[in-house]
Structure formats: structure tokens, C-alpha cells
Amino acid sequence: MTAQAALIPGLERIRARFLDMLVDRLTEIETLCEEPSTASLRQSQQILHKIAGSAGTLGLQDLGETARVCETRIIEFLDTGNMELSQVYQSLGDFAEIAEDLLTEDS
């Protein structure tokens, strides 16, 4: 956690709730990716958008940045077709790995 984040009262409690939610969101993304479709990728993108915004505020920059990269790649894939689906899934795999590492070290 960043020094600035540590100064905000109650932030550790919010961070703990965020990490609990992260477990559910990670499972949700994994389920959505089992059968890729435009709808499932949009839902994944929306989840990643929320994670990216919250993670940075809570001092989890790596998670937030990786979520933002995934979100951007999904948007690029869906809106322009300039991204391969395999690249989207590679980014999602990177995100899942960072999230799982974070959850493991926080346990």
C-alpha cells in the first residue's frame, strides 16, 4: 500500500472488502471467458474498468494497470478488430495471474 493510502482512515477495511470482491470478479471473468461472445467480452470489460479505477485508489497499481490494459484490448478487439482474440486472452491471463498473486500474498 502506498504511504498516501495508509494515511486515509479506514482504507485498510475498504481494501479488504475490495480484495474479497476481487475473488468474485475474477471468477466471474473466468466464467464469462469460457464461451467468448461480444456480450461476455463487454461484461468482462465493464468489470475490468471498475477494478482498474478502484485498484489505483487503494494502492494496487499493478493490478489497476493490468486491468486497464485488458479493458483497452477488449475495446480495441470489439470496436476495431485490430486486436487478435488471443492477445485479449493473453492480457486476461496476465490480469488473472497478478490478481491471484495479490490474493495469495494478502492471505
From TrEMBL:
Domain HPt, residue spans: 7-107
The keyword Phosphoprotein belongs to this UniProt entry's keyword annotation: yes
Modified residues (Phosphohistidine): 49
Gene3D superfamilies: HPT domain
Keywords recorded for this protein, A-Z: Phosphoprotein, Two-component regulatory system
GO terms, biological process: phosphorelay signal transduction system
A GO MF term: protein kinase activity
Origin superkingdom: Bacteria
InterPro entries, per the entry: HPT_dom_sf, Sig_transdc_His_kin_Hpt_dom
Keyword Phosphoprotein: yes
Xref: Pfam families: Hpt (PF01627)
Protein name: Phosphorelay protein
Provenance organism: Pseudooceanicola lipolyticus
